[in-house]
Amino acid sequence: MSLHPAVAAVRLGVRRALADVDAGRTVVVACSGGPDSLALLAATVFEGRKAGWHVVGATVDHGLQDGSAAQADRVVGQMVELGVDETITARVEVESAGLGPEAAARQARYAVLEEVAERFDAAAVVLGHTRDDQAETVLLGLARGSGGRSLAGMRRAFGPFVRPLLDVSRDDTVTACQVEGIATWDDPHNADPGFTRVRVRRTVLPVLEDQLGPGIAATLARTADQLRDDMDLLDAVAEAAYGDLRDLPVDGLLAQPTSIRRRVLRLAAVEAGAPPAELFHEHVLAVDALLTGWHGQKWVDLPGSLRCSRRDGRLHLDRADGQIPRNRPRAAD
């Protein structure tokens, strides 16, 4: 019997993404029990047997829903049935700290998965994000007006994390599980219209498909790949420029192209202690105005209790007194 195309697509994604992983190395699969992560797990186990990897299945209980511990136990049992070499489950405390519930849960999940990767000296931690997830991310970035970096979508790899399924559709992961007889879990949050991503998935993308024709998700994902190459180049140039402009001289910054200069300013603010998740484009524009629209402003307030001021031919990032608004920059005249 020939291999079903959906199963083949998932396995091919894993094989390509992990082509450089040597025999004997550990690959961790993050698994929630949904069709994307279970299809990924099954494919990684299959490819891992041929390649000689030690495959660890990891599930994270965020404790945000009733019965989450029981669901984590079920996932562990499924991972064992699918043939992983080892399993691990972790319970995390999700603290919002000014973030939305999705972002806070993601932050907690990635933190514990990084610990798992370090504990096992893993060559990779693979995540089950699909082409559809990428399309949703691009649309969310577009709606928020958050620039090329957000429109570039999710990275294929960063740190220990790898996303093998960014060229695979959600329909394929669902079908792969059905073909292989894998029972999947539907996270109730994925049907909750209170989450913006759910509204994009269930309303916006179907309307685009209906009005503009099929293949919109693939087109958006392809756009993300193209933009990411450009963003990576600009970021690399900005990092090199920051190495020469670390003391933030006004003349040196003004000599840079706008896109590079603003990236340098963001790098400087983050290095000084501004939380990246709270540092918005408006903050960077306000700091940039100290260069391009200078009329004697005293300072600009930034997240992380920072103040940026201009004096003696330089920009200065200093600690404030702790009473500074953290949501938007405010120039003090």
**CATH topology of the largest domain, which one?**
Rossmann fold
pLDDT < 50 stretches: 323-333
Largest sheet: 6 strands, mixed
Overall tally of structural domains: 2
Q: What's the end-to-end separation, in Å? A: 75 Å
Number of helices: 12
Structural class designation = alpha/beta
- Taken as a percent bin, the fraction of beta residues is 5-15%
At the first level of CATH, the class of the largest domain is Alpha Beta
Look at the structure and name the CATH superfamily of the largest domain.
Answer: HUPs
Rounded mean pLDDT score: 88
Order of helices and strands: HEHEHEHEHHEEHHHHHHEEEE
Q: What does the model show?
A:
- The structure is a single chain.
- The protein is of the alpha/beta class.
- The chain has two domains: 212 residues, HUPs (Rossmann fold); 86 residues, Uridine Diphospho-n-acetylenolpyruvylglucosamine Reductase, domain 3 (2-Layer Sandwich), CATH 3.30.465.60.
- The chain contains twelve helices and ten strands.
- Strands 3-2-1-4-6-5 form a six-stranded mixed β-sheet, with helices on both faces.
- Strand 8 and strand 9 form a beta hairpin.
- Helix 1 packs across helix 2.
- The longest helix is centred in the last third of the chain and has 29 residues.
- The termini are far apart.
- 38% of the residues are buried.
- The C terminus is likely disordered.
